[in-house]
Amino acid sequence: MSTLAVERIKLTSTRSPWWCTVLALGATAGIAALFAGLAPDDIELDVAATQMGLQFGMMIMMVMAALAVTTEYRFGTIRTTFLAVPSRPQALLAKTAVVGLVAGVVGLAAAFLSWGVAVLLRPSVDLGLHTAADWRTVAGSGLTYLFAAVLAVGLGILVRQSAAAVAILLVWPLLLEQLVMLIPNVGLDIQHWLPFTAADRFVSMTEAVPQIPYGPWGAFAYFAAVSVAVLVVGIVVAQRRDA
Predict the structure, then answer these.
(1) DSSP string of 67-117?
(2) Average pLDDT of the segment spanning 148-168
(3) Would you say which domain of life the source belongs to (predicted)?
(4) 15-60 tens-digit pLDDT
(5) Where in the chain are the domains?
(6) The pTM is what?
(7) Dihedral of the CA atoms 223, 142, 140, 54 (nearest 10)?
(8) 71, 134, 167, 200: which has the fewest Cβ within 10 Å?
(9) Measuring CA to CA, which residue among 60, 69, 55, 71 is closest to residue 18?
C-alpha cells in the first residue's frame, strides 16, 4: 500500500497529469458538443455518436501514462524508485495500477460528460441508455482507457524516451492501424486483430458482424490481453537492463 501511495503522490504532484485530465475531458465533451449542436436534423444522432471524441481523450491519457514512466527515466528518478523498492516489478506494477485507475476514471467521466452534453443540446432526440449496448458504449470507455494506459506504461518502460513513446502512441492507433486495411486481400483480416481496432469495436459494436471473429466482450478481452502482454514484456526487460 505504501508503494501505491508513493506513486499516487508522484503522479498528482506534477502538473502534466492535471493538464492531461482537463484536456481529455475538454476534448471529448467539446467534440460531442460540436457534433450535437451543429449536426443537421437529417443526420441521425444516437448514443454512439455522442462518443465521437473519446479516441482523442484516450490518446491524451495514454500520453500521460507514458510520461509517468519516461520522465522518471529522463531525470534519473527511476533509480531512486528502484532503490526504495528493490522489487522492480512491484514498483512498476504500482505505477501501472495508479495510472490505469486514474485513466479509467477519466475515461468514464469523459464518456458520461460527452453523453450529458449531447442530451442537453439535443433534448428532442432520444439519447437514453435503453440497451446493454448503449451502456457498454458509454460505461465501457472507462475500461478501454484503463487498459490503454496499461499498454502506454508498458511501452514507456520499453522505449524510455518520452518523444519516441508519444510518437508511437499517436501514430499507432491513428495512422498505422488505418493503413493496414489498405493491404490487398488480407488487410481487413489483419485489422480485426489490431488492438486499438478491437478496443473501438468493444464500445461501438452493436450487434454480431459475421466478418468479425469476436463479439464486443471478446474484443475487449483481446485488447486487455495485448495491453497486459506489453506491460509484462516491459517489466521483464526492465529487470534485465540498467536503470
Answers:
(1) HHHHHHHHHTHHHHHHHHSS-HHHHHHHHHHHHHHHHHHHHHHHHHHHHHH
(2) 94
(3) Bacteria
(4) 888 999 999 999 999 999 888 877 776 667 888 888 988 989 999 9
(5) 2-240
(6) 0.91
(7) -90
(8) 167
(9) 60
